[in-house]
Design brief:
Layout: H1 5-16, H2 23-42, E1 53-56, H3 65-75, E2 79-84, H4 89-96, E3 105-107, H5 113-127, E4 132-135, H6 154-179, E5 185-190, H7 201-221, E6 227-233, H8 247-257, H9 268-278, E7 289-292
Parallel strand pairs: 1-2, 1-4, 2-3, 4-5, 5-6, 6-7
Helix pairs in contact: 1-2, 3-9, 5-6, 6-7
Amino acid sequence: MQLDLGEILEIHGRALNPTRRDSANRTRSRHALADLVRSAATKGDATLLEGKRLLITGVLTPQSIAYAVAQTAQEQGARVVLTGFGKAMGLTERSAKRLPEPADVLELDANDDEHIAAVAAGLDQRWGGLDGFLHAIAFAPQDALGGNFLSAPRESAEAAFRTSAFSLKALAEGLLPLMKGASGSIVSLDFDARLAWPLYDWMGVSKAALEAITRYLARDLGPFGIRVNCVSAGPLRTMAAKSIPGFDELSGIWERRAPLGWDTSDPAPVAHAVCFLLSDWARAISGEILHVDGGAHAMGANAVEAPSPETGV
C-alpha cells in the first residue's frame, strides 16, 4: 500500500496541533492516523516486528492496553502468545480469538515461580527462544487504594508491591534463558510515579518501585543484550481502571492538562510506543520511562486560554 505523504502529514498535523475548541476533530485526526498506519501494516508495508516472538501478559478484554499491543504487534509481523490466570482466564481466551491471528493463552500467576517456569518451558518448546515480553500486571487490594494510604495494612501494601512490581523481576529472571543473545526487549506498563496522585496510594508506590526495578534490570540484563523500559501511559478506560476509586476525577486531569489532548478510550498511542520499544529500532534505549500521555506530564498546571490581543480578555 502506498500512503500519500501529504495526507499523512496533514492528518498528523491536525492531531498534534489542534485548536483547543476542536476536541472532536482532534480525536478523529488521531484515529485517522492510526487507521492509516494499521492499514499499511496489514497490507505488509510495515513490519516493525517481523518474526519477533513475543509474550504479552495482561490481556483481559479487547479494551485492554495489552490487547492493543498484541494486535499491533501481530499487524507488525510478530508472533504472539498471551497469558491469563484464574477466573480471568476465560476472558483472555475469548479476547485471544478476536486478534487478527488467534493466539494461544498460557496460564501464568506471576507470583508463582512454578508458573513462570512452566511458561518458560512452554515457550521454549514452541519457539526455542523469546525476543521480548510485555509486563502488564498490576493489583492492589481495595484497602490499599481510594484514600487508604495511612490505614492500609502491611499485607495489602506487600501484595501490591509483589504483584505490580516484583513480578517484573521474577518474569525477567525466569525468561532470561530464552532471551540471551536474542537482542531482547522487556517493556512494562507504568503510571507516572514522580508525583503523589489522589486515591492511587499503594499502587502509586508500587509503580515507583516498578520504575526502579526497570533501571536495575536494565543494568543487569544489558550485558546479555536485553533492553528494559517502561511506558508511562495516561489513564485509559480499561477493566483494570474500573477498580481504581475516583478514576473519572483522575483521568480528567489529563484531559484538561495534556497539550496534545488525551483520549481515555484510545489505547493505540500506548500500543504503538510499546511496539516501538519491542522493536530493533529501539536497540540503544534501555532504562527509559517513555511518557505517552499527550504531554500532560510536562505541564505544571492545566492550560488556560490566552487573552485576546484586541480585548486583553
